[in-house]
């Protein structure tokens, strides 16, 4: 008897379902997921400002740790106590369109937002460890030295250097 | 007597499953390790520098002795008090740079006739003509903290009473040597 009722219920459901098919509505919800990088870079000051120099000058430099506002400044947000490695090209070109000078970047970093206490970093390692707590977890500043041909022409020179952070 | 090992299909299946599991875990670890090295973010800094000409000298205003009536025998333009009648030169160089100043001038001519001209030069670190002082030919001056120096040129023209009419021109050449 029980078995008969079970079968009867299933059959009833199967028979009844088509009767409701014409009255169904559907709604579709998209499912969104954004995966952010575990470490993000915040640009505090984008420019390395070598200032104004006179023709005949063959070198201009900004120390990343002592260069103050002339150094570019960045901070890292991400996990605490994370080993990260910084790397950047050994040399880039800066040009006024006529003359090209070379620029060797230097980077200094600190777990605290204290530029003058930043430690000079080596491109490609060794890894530094982000702060044990808080956020941002690391601060770094970029400067460098331009080597200028003695016959360089006057004008505004510019270029860009990309620092890669690996974790 | 040692009993021969007996491998049942079930135990063989378990053994193979275990091996596959181990290999899978190893691959996962390896994959994670590989992925860990590929996580990068970048920061880009611009590098800016301005290179100024080592030395710049420009004649920003010519000297004008004006229009006079025939019969006058002397016309003067004081480089300090002569205002816009005096020529003006703007000089730029690296800050606090000592340079030697020399100048030369020609007589004034309208073609067939000439007028003797004697030039005078005044200069100042500040762009203030009335506060400038006379600079002798061959003197050394020092540019200001911005690398600038300012010159005003005047002079005296001696005419004859019967000086020929016309437009007289000459040149005053300022030379800076460093």
Strand content of chain B: 35-45%
Give unreliable regions of chain B as ranges: 1-5, 26-36
CATH superfamily placement of the domain at 56-177 in chain B: Fimbrial-type adhesion domain
Oligomer: heterodimer
Distance between the termini of chain B: 110 Å
Named CATH architecture of chain A? Sandwich
Helix-strand makeup class of chain A: mainly beta
Mean pLDDT of chain A: 87
In words, what does this structure look like?
The complex is a heterodimer of chains A (167) and B (178). Chain A has a single domain, classed as Immunoglobulin-like (Sandwich), CATH 2.60.40. Helices cover 12% and strands 42% of the residues of chain A. In chain A, the strands form two sheets. In chain A, strands 1, 3, 4, 6, 7, 8 and 10 form a seven-stranded antiparallel sheet that branches. Chain A starts with a helix and ends with a strand. With 178 residues, chain B is of the alpha+beta class. Chain B has a domain of 122 residues: Fimbrial-type adhesion domain (Immunoglobulin-like). Chain B has one helix and eleven strands, in the order H-E-E-E-E-E-E-E-E-E-E-E. The radius of gyration of chain B is 43 Å and the shape is elongated. In chain B, 22% of the residues are buried. The chains are: A mainly beta (167), B alpha+beta (178). At the A-B interface, strand 1, strand 2, strand 4, strand 7 and strand 10 of A face strand 1 of B. Strand 2 of chain A pairs parallel with strand 1 of chain B, so a sheet runs across the interface.
């Amino acid at each position: 008897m029980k078995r008969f009722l079970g079968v009867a219920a299933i059959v009833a459901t199967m028979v009844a379902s088509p009767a409701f098919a014409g009255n169904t509505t559907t709604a579709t919800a998209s499912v969104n997921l954004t995966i952010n990088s575990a470490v993000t870079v915040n640009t505090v000051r984008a420019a390395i400002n070598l200032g104004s120099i006179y023709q005949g000058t063959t070198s201009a430099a900004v120390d990343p740790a002592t260069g103050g506002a002339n150094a570019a400044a960045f901070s890292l947000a991400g996990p605490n106590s994370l080993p990260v490695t910084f790397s950047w090209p050994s040399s880039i070109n800066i040009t006024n369109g006529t003359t090209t000078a070379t620029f060797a970047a230097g980077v200094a970093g600190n777990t605290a937002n204290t530029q003058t206490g930043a430690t000079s970093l080596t491109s490609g390692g060794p890894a530094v460890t982000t702060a044990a707590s808080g956020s941002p977890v690391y601060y770094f500043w970029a400067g460098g030295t331009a080597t200028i041909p003695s016959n360089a022409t006057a004008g505004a020179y510019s270029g860009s250097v990309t620092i890669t952070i690996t974790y | 007597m040692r009993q021969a090992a007996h491998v049942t299909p079930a135990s063989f299946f378990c053994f193979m499953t275990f091996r596959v599991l181990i290999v899978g875990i190893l691959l996962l670890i390896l994959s994670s390790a590989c992925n860990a090295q590929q996580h990068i973010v970048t920061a880009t800094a611009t590098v800016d520098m301005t290179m100024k000409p080592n030395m710049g000298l420009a004649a920003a205003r010519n000297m004008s002795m004006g229009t006079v009536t025939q019969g006058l025998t002397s016309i003067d333009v004081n480089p300090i008090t002569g205002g816009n009648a005096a020529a003006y030169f703007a000089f730029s160089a690296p800050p606090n740079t000592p340079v030697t100043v020399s100048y030369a001038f020609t007589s004034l001519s309208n073609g067939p006739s000439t007028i003797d001209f004697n030039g005078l030069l005044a200069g100042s670190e500040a762009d203030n003509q009335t506060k400038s002082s006379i600079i002798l030919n061959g003197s050394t001056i020092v540019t200001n903290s911005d690398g600038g120096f300012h010159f005003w040129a005047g002079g005296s023209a001696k005419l004859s009473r019967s000086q020929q009419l016309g437009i007289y021109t000459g040149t005053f050449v300022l030379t800076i040597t460093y």
